[in-house]
Amino acid sequence: MLDLLLEDYRQGRPEVEQQHGYDRAVQEYVLSELDTGERLITERVGSVRSVSLGFWIGAGSRDETDSKAGVTHFIEHLLFKGTRSYSAQEIAETFDGLGGELNAATSRESTVVFARVPDRHLETALDVMADMVFSPTFTDLETEREVVLEEIAMLEDTPQDLVHDLLSEAIFAGDPLGRQVIGRADVISTVSKRSLGTYHRQMYTAGNVVLAAAGNLEHDRLLELLERASHQRVEPPEARTRVRKPLVKPPPPGIRFQRKDTEQYHVCVGGIGISRTDRRRFAASLLDAILGGSASSRLFQEIREKRGMAYAVYSFASQYTDTGQIGVYVGTREENLESCLEIVAREIADIAAGNVHERELTRAKENLKGRIVLSMESTSNRMSRLGKSLITDTELLSLDRIIAEIDAVEASGLAELATLLLAPSALSASGIGPNEDRFLTAVEQIHPGLPAEVAA
Question: Whole-model pTM?
Fold first, then answer.
């Protein structure tokens, strides 16, 4: 949830201010748009000798058709396998030679290729990364196909991660948001190089790309380098932007279970959340912190610390352009499963009833504000909040505004949000374990009647 709030952090004029007990240096961000359509957003941090930069592409798993499930993630892998100007080995050797870091990630709504390098190597890093994003050759396709298939197999062997994907499927059944970002083995096994190239040309258009950077840099110089890289392309990308189809009507709550001979049952319960532009996201962050998002949270204290019934128990939330997801995870042995979900149901009901103490709310607020301020010591975080905000069309708010919004949240707001989002009748469930009947019986503690409703 912290990353979601970091997207709102906009800095103002260069000065040093003190407010709410925090001293901080405040610097400008600068935004430009190229004639070709790419956007550049930067933030100068003169106290470091490095630059974090990332190409953000508005292409995620929710943009795929069912027959192309996993193509976005597959292309992310293939960007590293060679370009018009660099082989895969040359890409790896270049960043090793710079002493830099290069990586990429795919989510449901975006793809990012990001790096951190010493400031004197910015030009080289940008040149290689731009070629990766806009001019991949999809070399070594069959080798990388096997790598992604191994990644899918690894996920299947990691129930504590897989159960989250099962929950998304239970909540968003029939919608692309319910599919795994990593994709399906049957699609990855058969997708052709031609299909990958077509999808890349459709999604990696100039108007659908943002370059974000933070660190010891000059915006105008970076803009010049990006323009030069753009003009050197053999086939400049189209400037058009894409319009994503929204989730019109969420499906009813669902259940997903996968039988596996595990020592623990891995269980998630959750439902539809709020969008990243919803003002209630500040209350949602505090609800997450109080329910299960920190070491002093209710679920961590009640289930792990006081009773020792789980090693891992936490709440979580994801926010998308038009909707979101909220939920709880617990991994526990069979004899503790019903008791754990009973505690989850009880704590949710208690928050919904308005029983949040002032001290508890104050602690959650200070925790959240402190984590936001501390995260700003990382140029990678600064780059990410700029790039993600721009690619998702999310307003960048000042730190003062974010702190004010957090401070303005009252216990009644948390109660209203818990009542709306975590009402028993709104919750879906997913589980992985050896016995489905035991899982379904435990789910009755959270959503009475859900197993029967789904079966009907």
Answer: 0.91
